Task: structure prediction
Amino acid sequence: MAGPLLPVEEALARVLDGVAPMPAEQVPLDEAWQRTLADDVIATRDQPPFDASAMDGYAVRGDDVDQKTPRLSVIGTAQAGHAFRDTLGPGQAVRIFTGAPLPDGADTVVIQENTRREGDAVVLTEPGQRGRHVRRRGLDFRAGDVLIPAGVRLNARHIGLAAAANHGMLAVRRRPRIAILSTGDELVPPGGNPRADQIISSNDRALAAFARAMGAEPIDLGIAGDSLQALDEAIGRGLHADVLVTIGGASVGERDLVQQALTARGLALDFWRIAMRPGKPLMFGRLPSTRVLGLPGNPVSALVCARIFLRPLIAALLGRPHRDELEMLPLAKSLPENDQRQDYLRARFVHRPDGSLAVEPFSLQDSSLQQSFAAADCLVIRRPFAPAAPAGSLAEILRLDF
Result:
């Protein structure tokens, strides 16, 4: 007997059980984009490292700009990268440009629009305000501040911040290696010449792109035919990976041989049937150092299962938060009551007459329909035995952002 179907949450907990983050590696800052931090990024200096002018104008003493229309002697110039080295005294000013260090003795910058130059003197045409237009040392951050916490996936803004803190190298998690194996005599690669009884293999390409989007390194094991020898050879090539993903052939048909081939390699099977739709014949187990995730062969089932199970597994391997924050949106149309399987309905965002956002599940939900999946914005989650949901009621959604 196959036994009862495993609930999605329990299946996910088993997939994630005992997952440890990948080891850290040092990479140059220019190669750290989209990598996941292994250690906090700590500021090595103050930013700015000195009191700096925020505008072009004149560096002055606050005591000298309180009076109406003061006339000050200009004793020098300060530019970015070229500080004025002397000390500013009473009745004096220094011509200063944006980003230049404020001279000793100065505490204020008067913008050039509020001045009139008269030879070696400058006349303030508008009263100045003590402390204006100065970026104080450490305004952005101080040495020792945690600028980016470990576990963050680095974007362009993070890269700029790390560079400003004088980091040329960063510690990031090694990318998890995800070996992807398609199975079935009916499959041929894209761009080939399929026979009339064959179809194009698309799941492997989609899953490779998915793995990259999640921060992993996909490894293409190709397409294995429906024989134990072909499957064994392909599985052997994937045993160095952190996760082996098989596509198709994991059900109970006479030619569904993937479980047999994996078992012969020593697979400790955990489960292979879960209470979800699409994706009921999902398999999970472990070889000595490799997690094995057997995805259904239908294209939508494979990618939905990847969204629910492979995505959090990759996140956990990278030391990132891996629990989804579900959103709630009103339904644009009613849905019938659900059975014992948790549904993931492909849906799109629509705007209601008042301009607010709603979600509309597609009418056809067959797990082979890739065109509607490509057009979908999200998955609407229908819990087991959920009652009928009228239009306008709130639904749980997962965004499709890959």
Summary: The chain has four domains: 8-22+175-317, 24-47+140-173, 52-135, 327-399. The mean pLDDT is 94. The longest strand covers residues 342-351.
